[in-house]
From TrEMBL:
This is Transcription regulator TrmB N-terminal domain-containing protein. Residues 7-74 form the Transcription regulator TrmB N-terminal domain. InterPro entries: TrmB-like (IPR051797), Tscrpt_reg_TrmB_N (IPR002831), WH-like_DNA-bd_sf (IPR036388), WH_DNA-bd_sf (IPR036390). Pfam families: TrmB (PF01978).
Length: 256
């Protein structure tokens, strides 16, 4: 089996593997050199580099006015595989679990670190219909998963036609948050209210379908998802109570 096929088996796409191998063989290289070596069109090479950078397999630097791209060493691949094995070990009990006869066991899935929390975000848009309900600490979320990622999530959710009701924790709003003002709500399919200023939350909560996600702070960096019809219903009751005492943007006296 070729090296490229091995790379594909551990999770890279065919084109990601070709670009990575080209960069590994060339050493520090320009986009032109990578395009020629990998035999992939330039725009696609840029996209593959972006993906590889997210995986920690590619970095860039400047040489004069030119960008130079550098492949991470093979030892980085080994580290990534070990991290995936660790994650698999953590969820193995869940994979092996079965429902007991007579009642339905709720499923609980744990996630750690930036990439783990991002997986929770993507899980919330797997529901095809219905409203998702968020209690969001934007200051913590943007620090935890990245501001650009939060924006990407909001836009992707809107593209899929999925509405959310969002209660934002007033005391923890970051400066210059892009989607704070009401002009953005309809376009991004959001209904938004703000908690009373005296209320404080440490965790973000998302309720969607029969699942409830709890996301901790940046300091702790973990989250978990409970899949339970009854628990989700109970949390929706709590959510509506909080929604009813929260206020729309126009009643909050925010400075424009």
């Amino acid at each position: 089996m070729s090296i490229q096929k091995y790379l594909e088996q551990i999770g890279l796409t065919e084109k990601e593997a070709r670009v990575y191998l080209a960069a590994l063989e060339l050493g520090p290289a320009s986009i032109q050199a990578l395009t020629k070596k990998s035999a992939i069109k330039r725009s696609t090479v840029y996209e593959m580099i972006k993906n590889l950078k997210k995986e920690g397999l590619m970095s860039e630097t400047m040489k004069g006015k030119r960008k130079i791209f550098i492949a991470a060493g093979p030892e980085t691949l080994k580290r990534i595989i070990k991290e995936k094995e660790k994650l698999l070990s953590e969820i193995m009990p869940e994979l092996k679990s079965i429902s007991n006869i007579g009642f339905t066991k709720p499923k609980i899935m744990f996630y750690e670190g930036r990439e783990g929390i991002r997986e929770i975000f993507w899980d919330t848009i797997k529901i095809k219909t219905g409203m998702a309900y968020w209690i969001s600490i934007i200051e913590e979320l943007t620090a935890l998963v990245g501001e650009d990622f939060v924006y990407k999530y909001i836009e992707e959710k809107a593209k899929r036609g999925l509405w959310i009701k969002s209660i934002l924790v007033t005391s923890k709003q970051p400066p210059n948050y892009k989607y704070l003002a009401p002009l953005t709500y309809e376009r991004t399919l959001r209904k938004v209210r703000f908690t009373p200023k005296e209320l404080d939350f440490s965790n973000t909560i998302a309720i969607y379908g029969n699942r409830v996600a709890i996301i901790s702070t940046r300091k702790e960096g973990f989250g978990f998802v409970v899949e339970s019809e009854d628990y989700a219903k109970s949390m929706k009751v709590f959510y509506e109570l909080l929604w009813n005492i929260s206020k729309p943007y126009g009643d909050m006296g925010f400075r424009n």
